[in-house]
Design a protein that fits this description.
- The complex is a heterodimer of chains A (about 190) and B (about 70).
- Chain A is an all-alpha fold.
- Chain A folds into 2 domains: about 100 residues, Orthogonal Bundle (Rna Polymerase Sigma Factor, Chain: A), CATH 1.10.1740.10; about 90 residues, Orthogonal Bundle (Arc Repressor Mutant, subunit A), CATH 1.10.10.10.
- Helix content of chain A is about 70%, strand content about 0%.
- Chain A is built from 8 helices and no strands.
- Chain A is elongated and about 55 Å long.
- In chain A, about 30% of the residues are buried.
- In chain B, about 60% of the residues lie in helices and about 0% in strands.
- The chains are: A mainly alpha (about 190), B mainly alpha (about 70).
- At the A-B interface, helix 2, helix 3, helix 5, helix 6 and helix 8 of A face helix 1 and helix 2 of B.
Chain lengths: ~190, ~70
Amino acid sequence: MSGACAGKVAETAVELLEQFARGDQDAFEALFRRHQGEVYGWIVRIVRDPAAAEDLTVETFWRIYRTRSRFDPRYGFSPWARRVATNLALGHLSARRPQTEFLDEAPPARVRCAPPDPAVSAEVRQKVAAAFEKLPARLRAAATLAMIEETPYGEIAAALGISAAAVKSRVFRATRLLRTSLRRAGVEP
Amino acid sequence: MNESDEKLNDLVKRSLGPVADTELKRDLWPRIEARLEAPAPRVPWWDWALAGAVALSLLLFPAAIPAVLYQL
C-alpha cells in the first residue's frame, strides 16, 4: 500500500470515529458492520454460548451508542468495544452462575468446540466443565481465555482493564479452586 | 507454574477445547435498528407528581430528611 493511500484510510477511520462520537447514525452503522464479527468472536470465547453471545453483542453496541459522548476517538474503537463486551460477558457469567452452583455435572455444551482428547473420559470432561462453571465469573473469564483459548495475558488484561500481573493472579486463583473442586469430585489431575 | 499446575492446565486443555466456531452467522444490525427506531420510554405523569410531592414534603419538613435517608 502506498503512503498516500495509507494516510487516506487512516484519515477516513478517524473521521468515522469523530462522526460517531457526534451521534451520526450512519457512522455508527458503519462501525457496527465493521466490528460486529470481532466483538461476537470475543464474547463467544468467554461465554461459550452462541445465542447469548449474539444478545451480548447487540447489548455491547447499544451501550456503546448510548455512551458515545464519553468516547474518545484517539483511543480507537476496538479496545473500547472489547472492554464493554468483556464487562457484559462477565455480568452474564455472574447472572448464570447461581443456576449451576450446586450441580455436579456441567450443563451440556452450547457451543461447537475443538474435539476433546479421546484419552480423557467423558466423565472427567464433565467434571472439569462442572468445576469451571462453579468458578466466580471474574476468575472464570480469565481462566477460560488464558487456559482454554490460550489468549495472551496482555490481551486479556486490556479487555478486563487490569494489569497482566492481575490476570496471572486470577488464573492462579482459578487453578487453585479448580484443583479443590476436582479433588472433591474424585479427579486428581 | 509448578508441575501440578501444569498437569491441571493440561487436563483442562484436553477436556475443554477452544471454541471452534467464533464466526458470526448473521447480521445483527436489524436488532440494533429496531432499538434505534423504538420510541424512548416515557415517564408517566403520576411519577413526576410523586417526585414533586416528595420534594415538596422534604422542603416543608426538612427534619424528615435524615429519617428518609435512613430508610434508603
